[in-house]
Amino acid sequence: MTTMSQGLIIAAGGNEEMPSVLAVPIDELIVGIFGFLVVFGVLAKVALPKIKATLEERTNAIEGGIERAAAAQAEAEKTREEYREALAQAREEAAAIRAQAQTDRAAIVDEARTEARAAAASVTAAAEAQLAAERAQATAALTRQVGEMALTLATKVVGQGLADDARVRATVDDFLDSLENSAREAKA
Amino acid sequence: MAIDNSVKPLDLDGLVAAGSLDCKFENAANPCGFPAPDTGIFFFDDLASFEILGMEFGINKLTIQVILGVVIVLAFFLWAFRRPKLVPRGSQNVGEMGYLFIRDGIAREVIGKDGDKYVPFLFSFFFLVWILNFMGVMPFVHFPATSVFAIPVAFALIVYLTWLPLGIYRQGFFPFFKGMLFPPGVPKPMYLLLAPIEFLSNIIVRPFTHAVRLFANMFAGHLLLATFSIASFYLLTFTVIGVLGSVASVTVAVAITGFELLIQALQAYIFTLLTAVYIGGALHADH
């Protein structure tokens, strides 16, 4: 290096020999070593451990966050599943209740119908019985009255006291029976 | 005064001696000729000096710059990482970028899983070297401390004295040297040739090249910058050709400054990367 510039240096100012640029003075060497050791010492002891811890913390936080998110998602999934199950169950129940109601309704309607039918039947029966009784009564009354009228008429026609005669009574009865029989035949 | 960064102009024998030439005005109009920068720009006068244990330390521009570099690196990172937050803001972001660059880009990439332990070591080298390089274009400083050979030598020496004992400690004395001097997968007779070469390149030359690579780059860059900066003044005369020459020179100086910015970062990176390679080689046998 020195040779390169030798020609240029010679005169100016003084003639002092320029030291080689490749020379390594001990004091400069020590300055360099000391400078690095100070930087290294302070950074390694003070600044870098802090940032290292922070970066690790951040990694943990991110990983923890991801874990938490995964847990939350799993829980949400579980809740949704539960909800779905509950919903299905509720639907099932509702369907069952509806079916039950349907059956109940049919039963109730049937029962009501039966009851109504029974009631109607009993009313009809009662009316029929009454009618029959009234008819029997009317028939009996008519029969007696017709007999008496006929007897009265016959007595008047014959002009004799036949009233208490047993034979007369038997004749009247025969007559009435024949009347009754003819009426029954006509009906049939 | 003191920091004598100025350039001593080329002299024409006799003229100056005769006192008929004034070479102070550095200009093409001056018959003294172009005052090309010489290695003198890499030496500084002591402002003061003191003695520790019988050794003399000079306080000069170089010493001040190293101290300045140390202070800047420490101040920035102590400030950036003063209360690191989980969610980084501002300077912490920048600092973290640097930290992750060293950790992921160099330590883990080159050394491997156990590289995390050496992050502070690599981190300190990268940023100290970078800031000392950067001072080559820093206004008012304009001198890269790493262009003084002693500084890269000091750093390379620390690296050398770190990986060599580390390798012996981790692998054991004989396995370490065996792995280094007798790399596997080579025909036996070749070792006659290979072992001395490996010894020379790894043990002797390696720290030297480690230092010279950084030094030479910064030295050459500074010399180039100085040359074109001086030329832009020297060429400036009140003629068309003078103005054109000066403008061209300024342009080149600016371009070189940009180029230097790149070189400064790159050399700091290469220095740190090689440091990681050496440490990785000391930790793991197969290399």
Word description of this protein:
The complex is a heterodimer of chains A (188) and B (287). With 188 residues, chain A is mostly helical. Chain A has one domain (27-187). Chain A contains three helices and no strands. Residues 1-15 of chain A have low confidence and may be disordered. Chain B contains seven helices and two strands; from the N terminus they run ββααααααα. Chain B has one domain (39-283). Chain B is mostly helical and 287 residues long. The radius of gyration of chain B is 24 Å and the shape is globular. Helix content of chain B is 62%, strand content 3%. The mean pLDDT of chain B is 86. Chain B has a two-stranded antiparallel sheet with strand order 1-2. In chain B, helix 1 crosses helix 2. Classes of the chains: A mainly alpha (188), B mainly alpha (287). At the A-B interface, helix 1 and helix 2 of A face strand 2, helix 1, helix 2, helix 3 and helix 4 of B.
Number of helices of chain A: 3
Fraction of residues in β-strands of chain A: under 5%
Percent strand of chain B? under 5%
Rg result of chain A: 69 Å
Q: Count all strands of chain A and give the number.
A: 0
- Give the biggest beta sheet of chain A: none
Overall average residue pLDDT of chain B: 86
Strand order in the largest sheet of chain B: 1-2
- Low-pLDDT residue intervals, each spanning 5 or more residues of chain A: 1-15
Written as H for each helix and E for each strand, in order along the chain, the element string of chain A is HHH
How much helicity do the residues of chain A have?
A: over 70%
State the helix count of chain B. Answer: 7
Q: How are the elements arranged and paired?
A:
The complex is a heterodimer of chains A (188) and B (287).
Chain A: H1 2-9, H2 26-158, H3 166-187
Chain B: E1 48-52, E2 55-59, H1 61-80, H2 91-111, H3 119-134, H4 150-171, H5 173-181, H6 190-234, H7 240-283
Antiparallel strand pairs in B: 1-2
